[in-house]
Every structure is written in C-alpha cells, then in structure tokens.
Amino acid sequence: MAKTYREKITIEREVVEDYIDIRLPVKSKFNNGDFITIFQHALEHISVELNLSKGSMRLLIYLISKTELTNEIKLPIQSISEVLKISKGNAYDFLNELKKHNIVIWEQKMKTLRLNYELGYKGKVKDFKKVQYKDAPIMLNAPKNQMNLLDEIGQIKEEIRKKGEKK
User: Where does the source fall among the domains of life (predicted)?
Assistant: First the structure.
C-alpha cells in the first residue's frame, strides 16, 4: 500500500515600499528585416578608384536605400528625380554612369534595375551563395591613353609583320 504525504504551505505576501517593477524590452530579431549587406572592398573600390560624380554617388546611396529583396530596384525615374530634386535628364545620366561601371545592372528580361551582387545583397545568406559570382565585377575607368587588349594584339601582329618584311 502506497503512502501519500501532504504538505501545507502558507504564502505570506507583504508590500515593499521601494519596489520598482522592471520590465525588459523584448529583444528584436533579424528575420530578413529592413537591412542590406554592403561589402567593404566594393565601397572602397567605388570611392577610391572610380571617379563618380556627386550626383551619381547621391543616386547610388538612394538606390541602395530603396533596394528590395534579391537586390531589385523597382523605382520609376520620375519618382527618383522628384525625391532627389534633379531633372529626369540628369537622373538618366547618373543612372547610365552607374550602369557603365556595372554598379547597377539593367535586367532586360524583367525590365528592372538591380544592384550588383559584388556591391551588396539584401536577402538570405543561402540565396546569396547561389548568385554570388553571377555579376561581372565593378569596372574601373580606363584612362584615355590606355589601350584595350585588341589594340595590343593588333600592335604585336604589326610588329611581327614588320620584322618579317625586314628579313
């Protein structure tokens, strides 16, 4: 036969005069909230090596702030020009300058702008791993006196041809 035990507990409550009710705020979580990851090397590259105009830099910062998931930018040029208080023509010029350097990419299929994945990413890390090397790197301004590769190959062929004629 089992024995059961009973305990009688008495609870005494008293009021403490200097008691302050402290409640801690609920810790917020980063559940793909409203933030974007920007890569330092890309920012350094843009600020030091590219000679972007002041208007292009303003536009870039505004586009970064309005980037949606998977780096899409769904803003009409009219609203961009109104917010930045510039003309539509200047907004197009600044946007074309960013496109020229592969900072902003025009997706023909979706007819939208997209921020280069080399610059930053808004979304989940596992999704970024899939598209990390999809875009071309951000391009430098080529100096006017610098030749492109085809010009160099042409010059080498010309020198070989001249050497062949001399012999």
Answer: Bacteria
- Going from N- to C-terminal start, the domains of the chain cover 37-166
Please list, residue by residue across 78-103, b when 16 or more beta carbons sit within 10 angstroms of its beta carbon and e when fewer do: eebbeebebeeeebeebbebbeebeb
Distances (CA, A) of 19 to 14, 15, 124: 11, 8, 45
Work out the average pLDDT over 114-136. 84
**β-bridge partners, 72:** 114
Instruction: Give CATH for domain 37-166.
Output: 1.10.10.10
CA distances to 21, 147, 161 from 154, in Å: 82, 11, 11
Closest CA to 34 of 105, 137, 122, 118: 122
Is 72 exposed, middle or buried, given 0-12, 13-18 or 19+ CB atoms closer than 10 A? Answer: middle
pLDDT value at residue 56: 93
Tokens standing for residue 101: 């350097």
What whole-number distance in Å separates Cα of residue 52 and Cα of residue 73?
Answer: 20
Q: What percent of the chain has pLDDT over 90?
A: 23
